[in-house]
Amino acid sequence: MREPRGFGAALILASLIPATYAVYGLASDILRGTRVFGSNPIKEAEHFLGEWTLRFLVLTLAITPVRQLFKWNWLARHRRTLGLFSFAYGLMHWLVYILLDIQLDPSDMVADIIKRPYILVGSLSLLLMLPLALTSRKAMIARLGGKNWNRLHKLVYVSAVLGVIHFWMSVKADIGEPLIFAGCFAVLFAHRLWKWRAARAAAAA
Predict the structure, then answer these.
(1) How far is residue 168 CA from its own chain's centroid?
(2) Does 178 map to a domain?
(3) Domain carrying residue 62
C-alpha cells in the first residue's frame, strides 16, 4: 500500500489540535475567567498535556509493529514527526508547571520535589527525550553512525517507563489511565523483545 496523499500534512495538523486546544483553553480560563479546564485550569492543563505526551509516545513506538504487520513501510518516515510531537507536548507540560504553577520560584520547586517526588521522575523522563529530539535528523544519524544512533534512541523506552511511573504516582488512587498506558507500552516492548529473539534465533540457525 502506498502512502495516502497528504498523509504527512494531515498528521501534523491533527497532532497540533490538542496543543491548540490547551493554549486556547488555558488562556481563556486565565484571562477571561472561563472554565474550559475546570476550576483549577493550570493543574488540569498540566495533566492534559502530560497525557498527550504519553499518547504520542505510544504512537511513536507503535509505528514499527504496525509497519511490519501491514507492510506499510512508508510509515517509518513519520516516526520522527510523532517522536518530536511527544517531546513538544512533554516540554509544554513542564513549562506550564514551571511558568504558571510555581512561577519560576526555585524554593517552590525544591519543596514540590520533596513533597511530590513524581515531579523529579517526570523531569528525568523529559530530559531523556531531549537528546532524542536533538538527534532526530538524518544528518545526526550519519554523524553518530547507525549503531550509536540506535543505542542512543533506546532511551525512549526508559523515558516511556519513567513517564508512566510519573503519571501513576501523580494520580494516587485513580490508577486506571496509568494502567492503560502501562499495558500499551508492555505490549509494544514485548513485540520488540519477540522480534529481537526471533532475529537472534535465525542468526544462530
Answers:
(1) 15
(2) yes
(3) 7-204
Helix (H, G, I), strand (E, B) or coil at 98: helix
pLDDT tens string, the chain, 205 residues long: the values are: 789 999 999 999 999 999 999 999 999 999 999 999 999 999 999 999 999 999 999 999 999 999 999 999 999 999 999 999 999 999 999 999 999 999 999 898 899 989 999 999 999 999 999 999 999 988 888 888 888 999 999 999 999 999 999 999 999 778 999 999 999 999 999 999 998 898 888 777 7
Say what the pTM is. Answer: 0.94
Total of domains in the chain: 1
Q: Are 82 and 60 in contact (CB under 8 A)?
A: yes
C-alpha span between 30 and 22 (Å, rounded): 12
In a domain, 88, yes or no: yes
Mention every residue, 6+ apart, whose C-beta is less than 8 A from residue 170. Answer: 47, 50, 116, 118, 122
Determine the 3-state secondary structure of 151 from DSSP. helix
Q: At 6, is the secondary structure helix, strand, or coil?
A: coil
Whether residue 89 is contained in a domain is answered as yes
